[in-house]
């Protein structure tokens, strides 16, 4: 079932991606996107009619308050909050862009941003601290079923960093070709280009930070080298499957996840 959610720029089904040993990822099981605050009425209606029944939200409470998800009123979707702090810079930019009354301390903001790692380092930090949250996302996918609308939509604010790492973990753990995973990750930068990216960068500028190339990449980029750095970290720590198990995913849940996502 192919669906589109009007108002979103970075929404997609990861189904159809190739597995290393043949076959593809099952469609209508796992979706990814940016935050859902921009859904139009038609987008909300499409979400209601979709197979999606579970939303895994990696945003912080501040991000959720600033840009609440628009959800259907005619059907209950289960929302699971899996807050991961690393990657919240885009959420802060979104808040600043939507609140012209804020007067941040420019010097403090600039100092804080200068201390941020590059995107690959940010992903390593996510992985170092986020295993329980990422394992819970895997558990939600493993528990989904074709018998009811329980497909999982994973999102954060941009749908590129926390979401990108989570989706890469899930796909790598079930045996998806890494070049395909990297290509899916890289697609987010193209999807978000234009008005969305411009609004986020305007929010950063409003916070008083210089729009350096590094900041532009942190907020709007998905360079191949960044996700490759995350994969290198995973490989050095036993791989994606072992990593998810370190966060609490059981052997049975891992086996179910693989059966659920492999067509």
Automatic annotation (TrEMBL):
EC number(s) reported in the record: 3.1.3.48
Keyword check for Hydrolase: yes
InterPro entries attached to this UniProt entry: Prot-tyrosine_phosphatase-like, Tyr/Ser_Pase_IphP-type, Tyr_Pase_AS, Tyr_Pase_dom
Keywords from the named record: Hydrolase
Pfam families: Y_phosphatase3
Residues covered by the Tyrosine specific protein phosphatases domain: 132-171
GO-annotated molecular function: protein tyrosine phosphatase activity
Transmembrane feature ranges: none
Name of the featured protein: Tyrosine-protein phosphatase
Native source organism of the sequence: Microbacterium terrae
Gene designation: iphP_3
């Amino acid at each position: 079932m192919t669906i589109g959610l009007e108002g979103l720029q970075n929404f997609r089904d990861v189904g159809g991606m190739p597995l290393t040993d043949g076959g593809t990822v099952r469609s209508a099981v796992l979706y990814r996107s940016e935050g859902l605050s921009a859904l139009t009425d038609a987008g909300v209606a499409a979400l209601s009619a979709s197979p999606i029944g579970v939303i895994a939200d990696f945003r912080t409470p501040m991000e959720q308050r600033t840009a609440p998800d628009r959800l259907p009123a005619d059907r209950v979707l289960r929302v699971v909050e899996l807050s991961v702090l690393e990657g919240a810079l885009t959420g802060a930019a979104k808040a600043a862009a939507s609140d012209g009354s804020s007067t941040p301390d420019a010097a403090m903001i600039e100092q804080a941003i200068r201390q941020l790692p590059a995107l690959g380092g940010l992903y390593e930090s996510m992985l170092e601290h986020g295993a329980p949250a990422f394992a819970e996302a895997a558990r939600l996918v493993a528990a989904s079923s074709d018998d009811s609308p329980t497909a999982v939509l994973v999102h954060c604010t941009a749908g590129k960093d926390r979401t990108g790492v989570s989706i890469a973990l899930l796909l790598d753990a079930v045996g998806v070709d890494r070049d395909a995973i990297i290509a899916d990750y890289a697609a987010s930068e193209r999807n978000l280009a234009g008005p969305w990216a411009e609004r986020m960068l305007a929010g950063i500028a409003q916070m008083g930070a210089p729009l350096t190339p590094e900041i532009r990449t942190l907020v709007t980029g998905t360079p191949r080298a960044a996700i490759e750095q995350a994969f290198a970290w995973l490989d050095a720590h036993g791989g994606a499957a072992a990593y998810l198990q370190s966060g609490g995913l059981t052997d049975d849940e891992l086996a179910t996840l693989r059966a659920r996502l492999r067509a």
